From TrEMBL, chains A, B, C, D:
Protein's name in the database: Manganese-dependent 2,3-dihydroxybiphenyl 1,2-dioxygenase
Domain VOC: 6-120, 150-272
Gene source species: Capillimicrobium parvum
EC number(s) recorded for this UniProt protein: 1.13.11.39
Entry keyword annotation includes Oxidoreductase: yes
Keywords for this protein: Oxidoreductase
């Protein structure tokens, strides 16, 4: 079994904290759980951890880290020891350094991806006056903006996809769900999971790596029609989606991508994918000839985008 | 041809103007166009007239009037003259009495329904800073609350349905679309139109009449899924729908009813009905044995409701 | 007032009647009302006339005619007389020549568009064993294929858009809803209506005219999600949409275009547009700078397409 | 970790195999994988195992068994040994006895629920000519009927809910997600999972037990709008839903229940629930005072129903 249970949160550095809050709160519709002058913590109405997004004031827009929650408390140190054995530099983060969270470890993968592992986390209920109608939600549905149900997955670019995929399997217990192959048969992109989701992590070939390699962070909505509503909401706010609405062949998700204008970080509104309950899912490879988008708008190439990925499900 | 073109607006008296504004603005999602201390004018993002709802501060919750717009300017006085010939008392309302509107006439039908007819109206664009993405809308979609596209129809109860139906046809040019018959074959409720909508006006048998006889005002949303979203939004605001989500057989509409807690006025969120383009639509009668709801939640009987109608499409 | 009430039906010539029936019946989901070896008559479950589509076996794929129903029986001859006064050649079609239909007149517009006008038509109920659950439908919903509610509009290309628009207004009583202007300010495309729909007829600039100028025939579905379902259904049948799913700015419709592989005739699956109830709608012009698609997939250019239109709402 | 991975299939006895096939194939829209005169095997387009539903010709309508797939091949015998240690009678089913399946064990829970555990199963691709557009599906979407994505969960009634819940946890590794408590605080119904789904198994208090205690089998559709479409499709086929469309508080699912008229077995069309990725989900208890349906149609009491359950999510 894998030691990792799920993608727990994503911490993003932004040069304009107020601007990014406008996007993630007012437009995307996350709830602010806690904030001070340098960091804001947010979550969706179906997220239960203290936060699933942290926005950190910084000189430059970069991803700070992706936080992976382990299955058991002892998995954090056990995985840390294995990483150190492999020569990976591991940083200890004391409890409370990140609000609502216990002791954590941070490290970079061979592809440079900035990861955190942790287990202890506060599951704070909504404050009085903002309690949701249902006990199984942490916030109120449809209160503002897109109003996604929960954080879904993260997608990075990195120059060496096959190597990163293999390391993710061996060290972190990821399984491969699907792969897009290039014309030469090499792995162009891979979709990997530790949970039952179609994927928790995707990696695609790109010229950058590490904290500059974030392609997008995805948030789940219950219905394809909610993705269409998000498109109209974004456009009314002057934001132009750079991919979708459409439906990927890989992951089968109905998708829409837009960027926070204050930071350039891209988010995906995501619905309608599959879950994997079988223990013996075989990776599905799509050759360049086979690959197609199921339907909908193709990615827009943007001159000011640091990355360029063909199949960013 | 009928002299009336459409239901233009509905003016509602409320004992709690601030409370009703909270419902019609924050929860239902209409835009406030203009207001002072005693009256507020609102419209939906797809409404073009100055307002489609007026909320008037008053001692008691009642409908003030339903405003029917005529096809041509001269239709107002011509129809007024015909009404006076029939002995109907007609009140002249000077231009500007109702904001954004020209001279109008007010009268009561034989069933006591408080009507206004008018033609001249200001089609005010959205103020700078609130302009919509599309030139064919007057406001921004999905900016807050349910966010319906437009006012759709009005539904009254009155003791004598068949007589009111006949008068509405003869004097005002309404056509009957559908009728619900009681066990004795009498007309229990009728759905009538001057426009291409499935109905602009519905009348159902009930013990009250006139300005106390408002059953509901309906607002159109583009999709059935938008009706479901409205149900969740209402419940998060502590409002319990008293009918739906469901789909009527009569009108084929997907429906949801809820009441403004400040005034008790009921609104319907409405989608998916038919339009009638043929000039020779024959009224469709449903006997008590034939009548059914297509699917979904039946009406809830509420002890504090002044009216009780079996088939309030 | 206009003499025309609505677009009643579209008659299409196909070189492969069985193949086209497979598309319009099995895939699009229309019901076959009547057929013989050379012609098949179909309609949607919310259409009441004898047929809204006629498929005619022919050497070549062309539109045979667009059938416009008049408001009153006497409008047919009155309009015929006006056309002859203007020098238009008018052909008399006897009752029964087209199944289920009374006497009609056929003529070509100055742009060559092949029109028919008629009023008498049989409103045949569904045969026993295929009766729908609701009396206000002519067939069963969701029985097969896309299952649209009704025929919506027709779209032609023709070289002289402004001239055709003016003639359609003056002779046939169309009103202009919206127009797309080219960079030189000339009318590139126009959307026109005789009914309350956003448009019954669209004309766009193209190199061909007349019966070769059909761009598409549109069918209405109740929800945007039904358009997405249609995309998946088409792809499972091996058909690739050549535009959409997306949402036009002009008409605000959620759209999807695909071609019958047997004939090349293009159909649009269409939802979510507006209706016009006001008698004084002012045409909305979109300059080339202003024009945008609201969201979604752009048109695909196809080398084998006889026409090429930039804004085919 | 649990030994069970998921609900793999449900085998149902029916006194009218052809009639039940009409329901599960033509109306529900499952694909027939294999059949002979006494048994038919079906699956949904997103199911990969040989079958997820088996229909078995029999004298009486009962559930034959719920088939639970284990995580690893060796889990079958290991769990069988533990059951025998506890005095449970375990029946060995040879490979191939159920088409497409390896050796299995069958037993009854203390509440009498007829279970099968197995691991080996054939993942048969669709036959040529029925291949889906996407490699990650086993069949074509929207080909006929409701067309659900996959089997979701099973719901039983049994007299002793708390005892069955405890045994399911201890012996089979189920976790409790939510519970409905009666007025006396006792467990009225429990929703349990071995996978990441909101629940794989639900048990509610009822007077019957064992193979007569099936409340329903649920099938997942991607969107709430697909549930509404299913309601209309059922009604067109003369079937009246006995609960929904609506949305449960417990599980948050959009739901619709209807019964196969040939057997009386009830199916649920189910969408929009949550998944649980956290390893430390705490069971959520709803008291009788707290419990509510989120929105929509309440259950219909049917005189001919063998069971009567208040909260059958």
């Amino acid at each position: 079994m894998t030691a990792l249970a799920r993608l727990g949160h994503v911490a993003l550095r932004t040069p304009d904290l107020e601007g990014s809050l406008h996007f993630f709160d007012d437009i995307l519709g996350l709830d602010v759980v806690e904030r001070d002058e340098t960091v804001a913590y947010l979550r969706a109405w179906g997220d239960f951890e203290h936060h699933t997004v942290a926005l950190i004031s910084a000189d430059e827009a970069r991803i700070d880290h992706a936080g992976w929650r382990t299955r058991a408390p002892e998995d954090v140190d056990a995985l840390g020891a294995r990483l150190r054995e492999q020569g990976v530099e591991v940083e200890e983060v004391p409890a409370g350094h990140e609000a609502g969270q216990g002791a954590a470890l941070r490290f970079r993968t061979p592809g440079g991806l900035p990861y955190e592992i942790y287990h202890e986390v506060e599951k704070r209920p909504a404050p009085a006056g903002r309690r949701p109608a249902l006990k199984t939600n942490s916030g109120r549905v449809w209160s503002h903006g897109v109003s996604p149900r929960r954080l879904d997955h993260i997608n990075f670019v990195t120059p060496e996809v096959a190597a990163e995929e293999a390391w993710s399997q061996q060290m972190l217990g990821f399984s491969t769900r699907e792969r897009a192959l290039g014309a030469d048969g090499s792995v162009h992109a891979a979709w990997l999971a530790v949970s039952a989701l179609a994927h928790d992590l995707a990696i695609g070939r790109g010229p950058v790596r590490g904290s500059r390699g974030l392609h997008h962070v995805a948030f789940y909505v219950d219905n394809a029609s909610d993705v269409l509503r998000a498109a109209e909401l974004f456009i009314e706010h002057g934001l132009e989606p750079d991919h979708g609405p459409g439906r990927h062949a890989i992951s089968q998700a109905v998708c829409l991508y837009v960027r926070d204008p204050a930071s350039g970080h891209r988010v995906e509104i995501y619905s309608g994918s599959y879950v994997v309950l079988d223990p013996d899912w075989e990776p599905v490879d799509w050759t360049a000839e086979e690959y197609r988008q199921w339907w909908g708008a193709q990615p827009v190439r943007q001159a000011d985008s640091p990355i360029d990925v063909v199949t960013p499900c």
